[in-house]
Design a protein that fits this description.
The complex is a heterodimer. By secondary structure, chain A is mainly alpha-helical. Chain A is built from 19 helices and three strands. In chain A, strand 1 and strand 2 form a beta hairpin. By secondary structure, chain B is of the alpha+beta class. In chain B, the strands form five sheets. Chain B has an eleven-stranded mixed sheet with strand order 5-6-4-3-7-8-2-1-10-13-12, sandwiched between helices. In chain B, strands 15-16-22-18-19 form a five-stranded antiparallel sheet, with no helix packed on it. In chain B, a hairpin with a 5-residue loop joins strand 12 and strand 13. Chain B is elongated and about 115 Å long. Chains A and B meet through helix 2, helix 13, helix 14, helix 15 and helix 16 of A and strand 18, strand 20, helix 11, strand 27 and helix 14 of B. Strand 3 of chain A pairs antiparallel with strand 27 of chain B.
């Protein structure tokens, strides 16, 4: 009953927020890659017989374009209903993933229980987690202002979040077929989610390894599935766009080379506005690699906790993608309840939360001052972008460091920290 | 031997002479200079100078490139031959032509620079030829036309039809060889007028061109436009309409000046004018090379008296003919420089001026530097419906949303007959929107389209970026109905000279081009002064993620005793400073033991305190 009420409340919030049409045009919510107005423009051009990929406004995938052109009656004329239903479905998937995720974590805990230091018993999950987690996730998802705004602005991030949620569910259910499919679709749409294949592969290999299967064959199978899905999707797109590959340049090329410098909540736009021309390609490479680079070391370090990997990758994508929006961040924040056991080890909870709230409120204010009142300039808005990004980065690094610390205390207990050597207290340090 | 040499020399000189005579004689090359003046209903004086050079040689043919140029400017001929130009229309304009007050000009031109070029079908790469042509024209006229690259130009589909004769070979009508570009920010000044005058056979030494003194025009004109139009003309057609067998070329150089006599007279109701005060000199003797040299003054609705009286009056047009005063300069200036004065018996009464039948205006809507819209208004006051072609060239940095295009006639949405839309691409090509509309009689049509202003790379902004960026004028092309025809002077296609039009009383196809206003748009600008800061700060944020992730993935969490602690560089510096402090304090204590002992204690205490958190950062959190 409570759950139904929550969903009704979430839908009501989304519906009432959608009355504010300016949300569709906010740079924080709608970016060139996900804006509703651009999608409509693409559909309009497509109906006129012009290729939307000929211009620079449209960056959705050909499947999306055809879907919206063919099913215009439902998807465009009843777009609000579609988006709300899709968002609620996403919530359902994530909270379902919460249930299976909790089960997974409890199972894992059972396995390592023997190694846990007797002092650290209080750090372990309670068996109630399996009941609490889905509820917490639903609350975090449905009442998340970022996601409410995102849904009300009808960005295509709603679609992307749906597939990410499906991928998360598949991961917790050890479902290779669905997992690779969901990740492939998400990656097909916005490219970056391809790195989520790391946690999925690791998780499947671990689970199947325990069942006696060789790790290599598991990894290869996951890879083959992913490649198969991706080539299917790309092949279909190729067919849909009349046998031309121009959409690649307009979608992935656009994401990689960042030609449009419309302001958003990320660090790319102003950086590449102010970039010296001869360094542009170098820094483009550096910034794109920056995101990719984290995958391998993090996968090696945290291979035991694929859920954490999944969450932190989503977080890293939402900060370091070239056109980030509130919807990406909102999804990351709604995944955080998966890790209640790490909360005690967070270092800067209050300051980062405060920073995130403050920057979210200040961003529109400074935008107004810059664009409409002419009393501020681009630096003001960019300063907010930087703080906002750093708040998110703090959350991600805190999350990962918390995991490292929790592992330590689980292994060694509390009292080891109070032991004295030569009359001096010991210090806990990364060395 | 001597004899043969002399004979040879004589023979050579005779052939040369004969050749030159053949060149000059007859109708091979013809130069006409004309001035058309008209007082507009608002009291302004519109003077249109037109210098027409016709030549029966097809200068585009490669084998003719070594031909002698007599009257036709060689510099233009070489450019035209080098880039295979079939037709060329260039205008440089300062100021905006006020259609509602001044009626239609003979040559419509948008503010700034405009180039329309049609290339021959033998040109392999039109874009390359276009860039070469605009660069060459930039050199010819000392203007920045070289900025009109392929990223600024479009290929119109319905506007800018062929001006000259068309035919099967090398005189095509294929639109793929047509290019149109506009530079709204280009200024027209002395440095453009001077090279333009040098293209005339008599330069600025003789004839009507003497009147074009830049200082005077710049000082008094409210509108000043300079044009260069080249088109193929036909000297003889083949049998049974088989096309033109001997095409020639016609170059029209024109200058339009609008001067407000009130400003010259310094009296608000005195609109008397004379040539001398407007142009600094009276009418000087005609250019000896000119076939005819004529001044036409439109006196149809005038209330003034011309002094000296004209050689004759001429009635032009059917229905309500226009009365033109004609001065044949060759006769008129027999006794030297002569002034023409127009005196009004009564002072001018300013009233509502009857606007011409089709009016076209455009403005930008919206606030802020984020997004806006372009609204164009077309007012048709003809008693019949007309068909118009609306051409909009929007630079790539304004992102146009076609689905927001709204066309309404008196509040009722209408569908265009035809729509041409080529979306722009960043740094590659502009947006091209062309609409063919049917306008009802006595109606007002508005066209509205939304756009988004993009933020550019910091090196792409023009100087004084906060001034804004210009969007060039839109063009409206229409064919006037019979009742609106009397308002416009439209040159004949076969011969562009005014004499041909007025004396021949020829019927012309009344196709009219109307240009809208230029738009100024304030786009968002970055802070140009701090690229380094931005690069450093953004990289710092990236490093914020890199540092901790690098640490936690490459290191292990271990317990260490304080003396084994691995300090960061900053930590080392702080520790070093802290370790130095007690010795400093001790030294100070020795010097002033009584007074400062308390303070020192405080210092030491605080230093110890500040030492604690750095050492036990991690322990605190447990």
């Amino acid at each position: 009953m409570g759950n139904v009420l929550l969903y009704v409340l979430g839908a009501a919030f989304r519906y009432s927020a959608s009355g504010y049409e300016f949300l569709q045009l906010r740079p924080e919510i709608s970016t060139p890659t996900n804006s509703w107005k651009r999608l409509i423009e693409g559909v309009h051009l497509n109906k006129m017989g012009l290729s939307p990929y000929d211009g620079v406004l449209f960056h959705e995938t050909p499947i999306m374009l055809q879907l919206y052109t063919v099913m215009e009656n439902i998807l465009v004329h009843r777009s609000l209903l579609v988006f709300i239903v899709l968002d609620l479905l996403t919530c359902l998937l994530v909270s379902e993933a919460g249930y299976y995720g909790a089960a997974l974590m409890l199972q894992q805990q059972k396995r390592i229980k023997g190694d846990v230091h007797p002092e650290s018993g209080s750090l372990l999950h309670s068996s109630n987690l399996i009941n609490v987690l889905p509820k917490h996730i639903a609350i975090f998802y449905l009442l998340n202002p970022f996601l409410i705004l995102n849904c009300a602005a009808r960005t295509t991030v709603v679609w992307n979040n749906f597939f990410l949620a499906a991928a998360l569910l598949a991961l917790t259910q050890n479902n290779r077929f669905l997992g690779t499919l969901a990740i492939s679709i998400a990656a097909y749409e916005t490219m970056y989610p391809i790195i989520l294949i790391f946690p999925l592969t690791i998780h499947l290999a671990t689970i199947e390894g325990q069942q006696g299967r060789s790790v290599t064959s598991s990894v290869v199978e996951t890879m083959v599935y992913t490649l198969l899905w991706l080539s299917c999707l790309l092949g279909l797109s190729h067919q849909l766009s009349g046998g031309s590959w121009t959409f690649l340049q307009a979608t992935y090329g656009f994401i990689v080379t960042v030609p449009e410098l419309t302001p958003n909540m990320g660090i790319y736009w102003y950086f590449f506005t102010e970039m010296f021309e001869h360094f542009r390609s170098f820094f483009l490479g550096t910034f794109q690699l920056n995101l990719l680079m984290y995958c391998i070391p993090l996968s090696i370090r945290f291979w035991r906790s694929p859920l954490l990997l999944f969450g932190s990758f989503i977080g890293l994508i939402s900060v370091f993608k070239s056109y980030p929006s509130l919807g990406d961040v909102g999804f990351f924040l709604s995944v955080l309840p998966f890790f209640p056991h790490l909360l005690p080890f967070f270092k800067q909870t209050i300051s980062t939360a405060g920073l995130l709230v403050a920057t979210t409120i200040l961003a529109p204010v400074l935008w107004q001052l810059w664009i409409y009142n002419n009393s501020a300039n681009a630096n003001y808005y960019f300063a907010i972008n930087l703080l906002y990004s750093s708040a998110l980065i703090f959350i991600i690094t805190d999350l990962l460091l918390a995991q490292v610390r929790r592992q330590f205390y689980l292994q060694h207990g509390y009292s080891v920290i109070d032991s004295m050597v030569n009359g001096n207290k010991m210090i806990l340090q990364l060395k | 031997k001597m004899m043969s040499l002399i004979l040879c020399a004589v023979y050579l000189s005779v052939t040369c002479l004969l050749h030159v005579q053949a060149q000059n004689g007859g109708d091979h090359e013809k130069f006409t200079e004309e001035l058309f003046m008209k007082e507009t209903p608002s009291g302004h004086v519109y003077s249109h100078f037109q210098f027409t050079t016709r030549w029966d040689s097809d200068i585009r043919r490669r084998d003719n490139s070594r031909e002698h140029y007599n009257l036709f400017p060689r510099s233009v001929g070489d450019i035209v031959a080098a880039y295979g130009v079939q037709e060329l229309s260039l205008s440089l304009t300062q100021g905006l032509w006020r259609y509602e007050k001044w009626g239609y000009p003979i040559n419509s031109a948008p503010p700034g620079a405009q180039v329309i070029a049609r290339f021959q079908s033998s040109v392999p790469d039109v874009d390359k030829a276009w860039e070469g042509l605009t660069s060459a024209l930039a050199g010819l006229l000392c203007s920045s036309l070289n900025n009109l690259g392929r990223t600024e130009s479009i290929q119109p589909e319905y506007s800018f039809a062929n001006q000259g004769v068309t035919g099967p070979d090398s005189l095509g009508t294929n639109r793929t060889y047509l290019r149109y570009g506009i530079l709204p920010r280009e200024n027209l000044c002395t440095e453009n007028l001077t090279p333009w005058k040098k293209l005339l056979p008599c330069k600025n030494k003789r004839g009507l061109a003497v009147l074009l003194s830049s200082g005077h025009i710049q000082k008094y004109s409210v509108y000043f436009s300079l044009g260069l139009d080249l088109k193929p003309v036909c000297y003889s057609t083949g049998e049974e309409g088989g096309g033109c067998t001997s095409p020639g070329v016609e170059l029209v150089q024109s200058v339009s000046v609008v001067i407000d006599p009130v400003i010259i007279n310094k009296q608000a109701d005195n609109t008397d004018w004379n040539v001398k005060r407007m142009f600094g000199i009276g009418v000087t003797p005609a250019c000896p090379l000119a076939h005819t040299s004529t001044i036409f003054i439109d006196t149809t609705d005038s209330t003034y008296v011309l002094d000296p009286p004209p050689n004759e009056y001429l009635y032009y047009g059917a229905g309500m003919p226009r009365k033109l005063a004609v001065y044949d300069v060759k006769i008129f200036t027999e006794h030297g420089i002569t002034d023409i004065t127009a005196k009004h018996p009564k002072s001018h009464i300013y009233g509502i001026v009857r606007a011409p039948p089709v009016l076209f205006n455009r403005h930008v809507v919206g606030t802020g530097q984020e997004r806006g819209g372009i609204v164009a208004t077309i007012k048709n006051s003809c008693t019949t419906g007309i068909t118009v072609a609306y051409l909009e060239l929007i630079p790539w940095y304004l992102r146009v949303y076609l689905h927001t295009l709204k066309i309404e006639t008196d509040g009722v949405p209408v569908k265009p007959i035809n729509t041409v839309y080529r979306p722009g691409r960043d740094r590659e090509r502009p947006y091209h929107l062309e609409l063919v509309l049917k306008l009802a009689a006595r109606s007002t049509t508005t066209i509205r389209i939304d756009m988004e202003y993009s933020i550019l790379r910091w090196t792409e902004y023009p100087p004084d970026a906060n001034h804004g960026l210009y969007v060039g004028a839109a063009v409206l092309t229409t064919r006037l109905p019979v009742d609106g025809k009397a308002n416009a002077t439209v040159l004949a296609a076969e011969d562009s000279s005014l004499s041909h039009l007025f004396w021949g009383n020829v019927a012309t196809d009344p196709v009219l081009k109307i240009y809208s206003e230029t738009l100024l748009i304030t786009v968002p600008t970055p802070d140009f002064s701090m690229p380094y800061n931005v690069i450093c700060l953004a990289c710092t944020i990236a490093a914020l993620a890199f540092g901790p992730i690098h640490n936690m993935t490459t290191k292990k969490l271990v317990l260490v005793s304080p003396d084994q602690e691995e300090k960061s560089l900053l930590g080392k510096i702080i520790a070093c400073v802290l370790s130095c402090l007690p010795t400093l304090a001790a030294r100070k204590k020795k010097q002033e033991p009584e007074q400062t002992s308390d303070e020192d204690k405080g210092n030491e205490e605080s230093s110890e305190e500040s030492n604690i958190p750095t050492q036990s950062e991690d322990t605190n959190n447990s």
